[in-house]
Design a protein that fits this description.
single chain; 295 residues; mainly alpha; MetI-like fold; 14 helices; MetI-like_sf; membrane; transmembrane helix
């Protein structure tokens, strides 16, 4: 007998997949309009003339001394804020997860970290100018009550270290949020076994805990570097034109005045995409390695 024809599927089954995907449609649309298409436009514009012809002149312009110096300053600021953010954030997370701090400290710290890691732009710049600026609250207090003049000591909120300290406000909380699950993954049995075998606390950290956490630490360092390197609004709002870094040069090229070169701005943005893309790739690769250890 010939095989019978398959029964027709109910209408609800045939339309199940589109309805399931409908829930993520707003996210996909948002990513397409504000991430994928703008990135493609930047990459294409970096290799075009104003007339739409292909050229390498824009990318070659990135290797001029002034632009290379701006990239170098941006890399140094990003690296300094990432290293300091990792050190301070790791110490705070370790104190909450593995230290002797009360358990009730953890929830407020993680809640604040979730808010502070997304606090940037003009509000953050204003907060630090009002706190550490020439007539900021802390600056005036130190000068009036303790005789410490930050300006006379060479500190300027509109300088390299001023911008680095400002970035730490969101770098440290981001480190706490990322490294806390990795610290939670350290099994108590590992420390107990090390103690039974006669290992000291220092030996446990140097020979067991830190080697396991090392991929997570390096990956988070790469992520914090990319996070600082791509911070545009905070740098522009805080330093204006007093510090020549890539985001400020980019803003100067695309703001629309007669001195600007939008396609050179596309090339600057393309260079930022390459740098942050490399950093994020390193982070994803190292995080995948650390997750295999912590399972």
């Amino acid at each position: 007998m010939p095989p019978s024809a398959p029964a027709a599927q109910p209408a609800s089954t045939r339309f199940r997949l589109p309805l399931d995907w409908l829930g993520v449609a707003p996210f996909l649309l948002f990513a397409l309009l504000f991430l994928i298409l703008p990135t493609m436009n930047i990459v294409i514009g970096a290799f075009q003339t104003p007339a739409g012809e292909f050229t390498l002149k824009n990318v070659q312009g990135l290797f001029t001394p002034s632009i290379m110096a701006a990239y170098w300053i941006s890399i140094r600021i990003s690296l300094a804020s990432a290293i300091l953010g990792c050190l301070v954030g790791f110490a705070m997370a370790a104190a909450v997860v593995l230290g002797g701090l009360p358990q009730w400290v953890r929830s407020p710290l993680l809640t604040f970290s979730g808010v502070a890691s997304n606090f940037a732009g003009v509000p953050l710049a204003f907060a630090f100018i009002a706190t550490l600026g020439p007539i900021g609250l802390v600056t005036v207090f130190l000068r009036t009550n303790l005789g410490i003049d930050l300006r006379a000591m060479g500190f300027n909120i509109l300088s390299f270290w001023g911008l680095t300290i400002t970035y730490l406000f969101f770098q440290i909380p981001l480190m706490i949020l990322i490294i806390t699950p990795a610290l939670d993954g350290l099994k108590r049995e590992w420390r107990e076994a090390a103690s039974i075998l006669g290992a000291t606390g220092r030996q446990y950290w140097t020979m067991i805990a830190l080697p396991i956490l090392f991929p997570s630490l390096l990956g988070t360092l790469a992520l914090l570097f990319a996070n600082a390197f791509g911070a545009v609004a905070t740098a522009i709002a805080l330093t204006g034109s007093s510090l020549s870094i890539v985001p400020i040069l980019l803003f100067a090229q695309i703001r629309g005045d007669v001195l600007g070169d939008p396609h050179l701005g596309y090339a600057l943005a393309f260079g930022m995409i390459v740098v942050t893309g490399i950093a994020n790739t390193i982070y994803i690769w190292l995080r995948a390695r650390s997750e295999r250890w912590l399972k």
